[in-house]
Amino acid sequence: MAFRLFSREEKQASPPERKASATGRVVALASGAGRAVWSSRDTASLTRGGFVGNPVGFRCVKLIAEAGAAVPLICEDRDRRYDIHPVLDLLRRPNPGQGRAELFEALFGQMLLSGNGYVEAAGLGAQGLPEELHILRSDRMSIVPGADGWPIAYDYSVGGRKHRFDMTGSPDPICHVKSFHPQDDHYGLSPMQAAAVALDVHNSASAWSKALLDNAARPSGAIVYKGVDGQGVLSPEQYDRLVGEIEMNHQGARNAGRPMLLEGGLDWKPMGFSPSDMEFHETKLSAAREVALAFGVPPMLLGIPGDATYANYAEAHRAFYRLTVLPLATRVAASVAWWLSEHLGAEFELRPDPDRIPALAEERDQQWARIGAATFLTDAEKRALLGLPPLAEA
Fold first, then answer.
1. 150 three-class SS
2. Nearest alpha-carbon partner for 119 in 110, 63, 144, 88
3. Which residue ranges have biased composition labelled Basic and acidic residues (predicted)?
4. CB distance 356 to 72 below 8 Å
5. Taking 90 as the threshold, does the pLDDT of residue 240 lie above it?
6. How far is 113 from 129, CA to CA, in rounded Å?
7. In this predicted structure, what is the pLDDT of residue 374?
8. 200: exposed, middle or buried (C-beta count within 10 Å: 0-12, 13-18, 19+)?
9. Over residues 153-173, mean pLDDT
10. Interior CA angle at 229 toward 228 and 231, to 5°?
11. Are 177 and 331 spatial neighbours (Cβ–Cβ below 8 Å)?
12. Is residue 150 part of a domain?
């Protein structure tokens, strides 16, 4: 029996060799099955402090997510562009509770907050497409890597209960769109994580400002007691009387500007915090600019002063779409299209249509005029340069 291990019969029964990355097994062992891996700060804490509790982070996420969700999409294959397509019908109303804009806004928002976006295919609709599409919360999702390092399942955990999405079959029930992370094989890096320090500075500056407002904006001064023989200690009765007189006669709007009469060795020492002591205001604005920089939003669009990168608001708006919104929308649309192509059984593409974005209208007019005036180009070449499909032959 021992020598049958090396027999020809056993060799023929062995499974065929599969091609895979040589580093896959190492990645799988290092990742750990079913374990959600985050950076030094978890998504829930960053969302509370950087989105729910910070106006700059909130506005950055909302600005990018809403702009990306409003970008018109083109559905096409290698031969033609479609105005009517089953995928467009699915995206128009992906589920009973959301439309196209709400679905993509939630997907972009999850990517900006955590670096990961998850789309679930629910049910079986026409032509093999999902009946519904749903966005899953990224803080509840964890990847289960297989022996080759690729995900074999996704675990979605809510309140101690877990649902597993099997990724070993075809088509995949989950579309995972992630941002680039140089130190993680399965999860993306969010702008919120890169801006975590700046968010802490901005939140601390806001808390410091709130504390100053609660204390009449600044400590206006100190009452110094010079007792007999240098003993500067008040008795409990003297201290209570002094505090009571100050609260009654010298605090509040009714007593603003009222002179203070001191007796018995009491001396008034005015003091306050000058702007140069901590450069409080500039520190807060600098932190806000760093947060905007991490998200790719021009500070001018957020009303943050002191930024002269762009000549005017329109130029900043164009840069926002070109450098932030369109790259994100292009990556997300391509991932969703490839995933839905597997369901449909036919390859197609989804990509943003920059010609229908009002902020880029001036660039579009210049491009069309420049290409239209090129007499050395044929009509087919001009259409190709403008991203238009070829005309159908008569």
1. coil
2. 110
3. 1-20
4. yes
5. no
6. 29
7. 84
8. middle
9. 92
10. 75
11. yes
12. yes
- Identify which has the larger pLDDT, 310 or 228: 310
Give the tens place of pLDDT for each residue, 70-129.
999 999 988 888 989 999 999 999 999 999 999 999 999 999 999 999 999 998 887 889
**Token code pair at residue 147:** 């022996």
Residue 390 vs residues 370, 378, 385: alpha-carbon distances, Å? 20, 12, 11
- Write out the DSSP string of 215-266: TTTS--EEEEE--GGG-----HHHHHHHHHHHHHHSSSGGGTT------TTE
How many whole angstroms separate alpha carbon 239 and alpha carbon 247?
Answer: 12
271, 288, 311 - which closes a domain: 271
> Average pLDDT of 295-321?
85
Per the document, the length of the chain is 394
Beta-sheet strands, E only, within the chain:
73-76, 81-82, 116-122, 132-136, 141-145, 151-158, 161-166, 174-178, 221-225, 266-270, 349-352
Q: Which amino acid is at 113?
A: L
DSSP 3-state of 158 = strand
pLDDT score, position 311: 74
Domain count, the chain: 3
Same domain, 196 and 253: no
Per-residue confidence (pLDDT) for residue 278, from 0 to 100 = 53
Asked if residue 255 has pLDDT above 80, the reply is no
Provide the domain limits for residue 213: 19-217+278-356
**In Å, how far are 80, 88, 318 from 84, measured between CA atoms?**
11, 7, 30
